[in-house]
Amino acid sequence: MSSQRPRVLIIGGGFGGLFCARRLAKADVDITLLDRSADHLFQPLLYQCATGKLSIGHISRPLREEFARYDNIKPLLGEAITLDPSARTVTALRPDETTFVVEYDVLILAAGMRQSYLGNEEFAHWAPGMKTLDDALEIRQRILTAFEIAETLPPGPERTDWLTFAVAGGGPTGVELAGQIREMATRTLTNEFHSIQPQEARVLLFDGGQRVLKKFAPDLSAKATETLAELGVEMHFGVHVTDVRRDGVTVTPKNGAPDRQFSTRTVLWTAGVEAVPFARHVAETLGAPTDRAGRIQVEPDLSVAGHPEIFVVGDLAGRDKLPGVAENAMQGGLHAAACIRRDLAGRPRRPYRYRDLGSAAYISHGNALLQVGRIRVSGYLGWVAWGLIHIAFLTGVRNRISTVATWLASIARAGRYHRAFMLGAADRPEQRYTYSTWDLPEPAPPHYRAYRS
């Protein structure tokens, strides 16, 4: 490090960046926290926002508010686009597409992953993923608008298509979304319409494996399957979604059986993740090996080989099959901060050791799974444990108090009080309406595409 006060640049305000900044808040360093949204998002509860259980404010907090009391932490809004390791600078993109440069002595890459469409990027137009607040609000709009459009249609195939929802991916996010949509249809919306019966809505869940929640113990996975079936979710295993269109999906069985066509006007994609473009740029610039998803190979201390001043934490760290979960990001951020503190004190760094704190998945109101080592809990007790664990990790005391109040209220009544959504207008194509004829993907400006290629 330089003889002056070290400059630490953290890219990403997720769990890794947040916990790293918190740990360094009183250290003798100047911290810049660069994030493309200016908020910390509690991503594990994103689907609860998408389905009206929680509001945006319950699962996010402005980074400026979070660090307002720390003089050595400066949050900045911008998207990192290029790295110059010799000059130790990062160029960032402002929302107006102008750029600015940030200098650093130590760089923490905690930018996370984005939704992967497995090489079929055109699917994103019809099948939003579940990674950002924008995704959650778009999904909320699509789900609720589908019921509203169905209400205006006569009985027949077109109405049925609008009341059919397809979810690609049987991991925790896919299972949670599928269960929530059926719960909305059978509990929340059941008495609110006149022409349709919302409980007749079909929810199709597609996965390439032979069971949902493959990272959970088989008995918990079986309980999740049983609960989903009781809710009315139709599960299709051993298949891949190979085409997504305006009016349906194509599903290809892995056993070589003929393709199947499913008519639906609402498709949600949760099948896979990949590194954000900047992370791939960093790996290429530094000559660091990556895996197929773009995770960067790191040293035992989470630094990049040949660049001890650059750390990679969270989902992007490719070492020892580290899981892409919030706990790994939190622990990685804390470890990177500890390494910086040890460097300042002239002590050697320690290797990173991930501690598995377990896994949890929400299935429906009053029903969740929790797996911590040999401890396996499901049903109502699992639901209570799931809620307490997630609330414990929420950012900021205010967020915890308001979320606890909302969550406790939902115990008495399975209501959804955050169902407001907005629709776009034909004269403002940047605001999408749901599957209208003019809603076609438009090419971005050449320089904008270049930043994301």
UniProtKB/TrEMBL annotation:
<keyword id="KW-0560">Oxidoreductase</keyword>
<dbReference type="InterPro" id="IPR051169">
    <property type="entry name" value="NADH-Q_oxidoreductase"/>
</dbReference>
<dbReference type="InterPro" id="IPR036188">
    <property type="entry name" value="FAD/NAD-bd_sf"/>
</dbReference>
<dbReference type="GO" id="GO:0003955">
    <property type="term" value="F:NAD(P)H dehydrogenase (quinone) activity"/>
</dbReference>
<protein>
    <submittedName>
        <fullName>NADH dehydrogenase</fullName>
    </submittedName>
</protein>
<keyword id="KW-0274">FAD</keyword>
<keyword id="KW-0285">Flavoprotein</keyword>
<dbReference type="Pfam" id="PF07992">
    <property type="entry name" value="Pyr_redox_2"/>
</dbReference>
<dbReference type="GO" id="GO:0019646">
    <property type="term" value="P:aerobic electron transport chain"/>
</dbReference>
<dbReference type="InterPro" id="IPR023753">
    <property type="entry name" value="FAD/NAD-binding_dom"/>
</dbReference>
<feature type="domain" description="FAD/NAD(P)-binding">
    <location>
        <begin position="7"/>
        <end position="333"/>
    </location>
</feature>
<comment type="similarity">
    <text>Belongs to the NADH dehydrogenase family.</text>
</comment>
